[in-house]
Amino acid sequence: MGVLNVTPDSFSDGGRYDSFAAAVQHGTSLIRDGAQLVDVGGESTRPGAARVPAVTEIGRVVPVIEALSAQNVPTSIDTTRAEVAAAALAAGAQVVNDVSGGLADPAMVKVVADAGCPFVIMHWRAHSADMQSRAVYSDVVTEVRDELSRRVDDALAAGVRAERIILDPGLGFAKLPEHNWELTRHLDRLIELGFPVLYASSRKSYLGRLLAGPDGEPRPVDGREAATVATSVLAVAAGAWGVRVHDVRATVDAIAVWRATGAPELTWRPA
Question: Which residues are 75's β-sheet partners?
Fold first, then answer.
């Protein structure tokens, strides 16, 4: 899953693809580099980010999704709003990727159920402005697993089909670095729930902290790519259904090397 942020303030590439032409060009380049799905987002979810009006979010993502769909580029919509998801699906998006797992907008599960599309349910506890204050766990793997299970139950009760559900542990969302590493170490515990798992470590701050220099300063965003590739390949090797990354080519190359050792080929298809 290649990341396409049509935003001015995303933590990694904010402002780089916030024009229509740049966004469409980057979306097609992600496919050329080997992405099998382009995840289009119009609202930053970085820690501390302020929300934007739904009309702004729709205005950012819908024209891009329409243009990419016209070029047969498969897209997902990265949003927590049912209104935005519905507009994106009408524009041609094939998947809804909700970082709140339906908690931010109770109408989301009905939109997904009615559309019959795949639904990425991420572990989430609060909006970006204060999510890190909720990063309190006694057993992060068990608690994330249990909270995701409850979100699955709610989605199923609302009519979302089980075979359309994909889970995401939500690395960096109400998580401290040690929580992210623990979830990565025990990804099999989430896979045991029986649903495809999406892993999204790309360029996140906990990788920067791991790679901090002698002065203790975290490695800048543009220096976290090797760590992103390493964690993504580890996740795929552990059985993840997919990985969400900014630099698609580097990850695709690394997975090709892993596959050359006799590992199974990965081919994305809508659930």
Answer: 38
Kindly name the residue from 244, 249, 259, 269 that is annotated as catalytic.
244
Query: Could you give the strand order of the β-sheet that contains 38-41, starting from the edge strand earlier in sequence?
Result: 2-5, 38-41, 75-78, 95-98, 119-122, 165-168
| Number of domains composing the chain | 1
* Residue 144: pLDDT over 70: yes
Mark whether 204 is an active-site residue.
yes
* The one catalytic residue among 125, 204, 219, 224: 204
| Domain membership flag for residue 266 | no
For 59-112, the pLDDT digits (tens) are 999 999 999 999 999 999 999 999 999 999 999 999 999 999 999 999 999 999
pLDDT digits (tens, 9 = 90+) for 197-226: 999 999 999 999 999 999 999 999 999 999
Give domain status of residue 29, yes or no.
yes
Within a domain: 9: yes
Give yes or no: 32 in active site.
no
Residue 239, CB-side half-sphere exposure with 13 Å CA sphere: 14
pLDDT band at 265 (very low <50, low <70, confident <90, very high): low
Report the predicted TM-score, pTM, of the whole model to 2 decimal places.
Answer: 0.91
Strand locations in 29-153 (E): 38-41, 75-78, 95-98, 119-122
Task: List the structure tokens of 18.
Answer: 């916030």
